[in-house]
Specification:
six-stranded mixed beta sheet, 16 strands, eight-stranded mixed beta sheet, 398 residues, alpha+beta, single chain, globular
Length: 398
C-alpha cells in the first residue's frame, strides 16, 4: 500500500520481535468515553491475550517499509462457528439451530500519526481475506455507536451493516456483601451438566458458540450457577432438570477477564477520584451502611464477565438478580467490577444491576456477508434477518 510516498506492509504479528511495538500502538490508541477520559487496556505482556482463547485466531500488524521500520497499526481476528438461525427439520419435535462460520474483528488500532491514510482499511481487508481462507461466511465487529470514525470505516468503506445493539452492563464490586434471598437455592453445575443445559436451552440464540464445551471447560471460566426458588432444592441432574424443570429458574456463568487483561480509566476529573476515595473509605469502615462505593477504576483494575445469563418462568428476573448478587459476593476482594452483555430487548436486562455511567446502553455490532458465492442456505442472508431479543456474548471475545 502506498500513501504520500509511504509504503505500508501488512504482515502477521511476530511475538518474538513485535511485542513491545504492538504494546506501544495499543498505548497511544487508548479508547473509551469521549472528552478527556480514555480507557487503557493492559494485556499483561501479551498483545494476543484477547484472542488466544478462541479456536482460531490471527493478529496482523501494519509496518512502514524502508531502512527504519515502525509498526503503526494492528488488528486482531478470530473465527468460530455460531448459531445464526433456527429451523424445523422434518420429523423433529422442536426447532434446531442453524450454524455458520463467523469471523470477528477486534482491537483495530492505528497510530494517530498514520490515520486517514488507508491503513485501517487495508488491515480490515487483509483480515477478511484470512477469514475467507478459513471458510468464514460472515465477519462482524463491535464498537461504540458514537465512535464515528470506526462506524464510518466499517459501514461506508468496508460494506458492513449495522446489525445488533446489545447493552454492556457494568456494576462495581463493593466491599460489603449483598444480601441474597434465603428462599433460593444456588447450585454450581459440573462442566458437563452446564454444557447439556446450555445446548438444550440456549443453542437457538444468535451467536451461541458451537464449541460451548470449550468455553465452559476453559480455566478462565469460574463456574456455572443455577438458582431456583426452593431453599431445599436438590440438583437432580441435567436430564431430569430439563424433563421436569422448576416453575422458574435462572443460570449464569462467570469468566475471569482479570486473567486476560486489566483496565484503567485515565483522565477522570479530580472530583470523581475524591468521591471514589471517600466512598470506599466509608464502605470499609462502616460496611453495614452499604454505601454504594465507587471502585478504584482510576488505577489498574480487574473485571469478571457474566455470560450465558438467562432462565425461564415468571420469577426469572428475580432469580437473575439473586445470581448477580451471588456473583458479586464471589468477586469481593478479587476484582473491581462485574460486566455482562445482553440483547437490547432481553427480558433479563432490567434485572441486572448496573451503573449507567460505567455501562453502554447500545454497543453496536456490525455484520458483513463475505462473499456472494455463498448460497443463501437455510437462514438466508443473515445480515437482513430480524433482530432477536437475546444474543449470546462469547466471553472469549470481550
Amino acid at each position: 500500500m502506498e500513501e504520500e510516498n509511504m509504503v505500508i506492509v501488512i504482515r502477521e504479528y511476530d511475538p518474538l520481535k513485535d511485542r513491545f511495538a504492538a504494546e506501544e500502538v495499543d498505548r497511544v490508541c487508548e479508547v473509551g468515553p469521549s472528552g478527556t477520559m480514555s480507557l487503557f487496556t493492559d494485556h499483561l505482556g501479551d498483545p494476543q491475550a484477547r484472542i488466544r482463547n478462541s479456536p482460531v485466531y490471527l493478529m496482523l500488524v501494519a509496518e512502514t517499509a524502508g531502512p527504519v521500520k515502525k509498526i503503526v497499526g494492528l488488528v486482531r481476528g478470530t473465527v468460530k462457528t455460531v448459531t445464526c438461525g433456527k429451523k424445523n427439520y422434518s420429523g423433529a419435535k422442536s426447532k434446531k439451530p442453524i450454524y455458520t462460520k463467523l469471523g470477528y474483528i477486534l482491537g483495530l488500532r492505528i497510530c494517530p500519526s498514520h490515520r486517514r491514510m488507508g491503513v485501517g482499511l487495508e488491515l480490515v481487508r487483509k483480515m477478511e481475506e484470512w477469514f475467507k481462507e478459513r471458510e468464514a461466511e460472515y465477519s462482524y465487529m463491535a464498537t461504540e455507536k458514537d465512535n464515528e470514525a470506526s462506524v464510518r470505516l466499517f459501514t461506508k468503506k468496508c460494506g458492513y451493516t449495522k446489525f445488533r445493539t446489545p447493552s454492556i452492563l457494568v456494576h462495581p464490586v463493593y466491599q460489603h456483601r449483598k444480601k441474597v434471598s434465603h428462599q433460593v437455592s444456588i447450585i454450581r453445575l459440573s462442566v458437563s451438566d452446564a454444557e447439556t443445559l446450555y445446548r438444550a436451552r440456549f443453542a437457538l440464540t444468535e451467536f451461541f458458540p458451537r464449541d460451548i464445551d470449550k468455553v465452559l471447560s476453559n480455566s478462565l471460566s469460574l463456574g456455572t450457577f443455577v438458582t431456583v426458588r426452593d431453599k431445599q432444592y436438590q440438583w437432580p441432574g441435567t436430564e431430569e432438570f430439563l424433563a421436569n424443570p422448576p416453575e422458574s429458574w435462572a443460570v449464569v456463568s462467570v469468566w475471569n477477564l482479570d486473567g486476560v487483561y486489566r483496565l484503567e480509566l485515565r483522565g477522570a476529573p479530580a472530583l470523581w477520584r475524591s468521591l471514589g476515595l471517600v466512598s470506599r473509605a466509608v464502605d470499609r469502615v462502616v460496611p453495614w451502611l452499604k454505601v454504594p462505593a465507587i471502585p478504584d477504576i482510576f488505577t489498574s483494575f480487574g473485571a469478571w464477565f457474566m455470560y450465558g445469563l438467562g432462565g425461564e418462568g415468571k420469577e426469572r428476573e428475580k432469580l437473575v438478580r439473586s445470581l448477580c448478587d451471588y456473583v458479586h459476593n464471589m468477586a469481593r476482594g478479587k476484582v473491581e467490577v462485574l460486566a455482562t452483555e445482553v440483547g437490547a430487548l432481553d427480558p433479563v436486562r432490567k434485572a441486572v444491576p448496573n451503573w449507567k455511567r460505567l455501562s453502554c446502553d447500545e454497543d453496536l455490532w456490525c455484520l458483513k456477508r463475505l462473499g456472494e458465492e455463498y448460497s443463501d442456505g437455510e437462514v438466508g442472508d443473515w445480515t437482513k434477518s430480524t433482530p432477536q431479543p437475546t444474543i449470546f456474548a462469547d466471553p472469549r471475545e470481550v
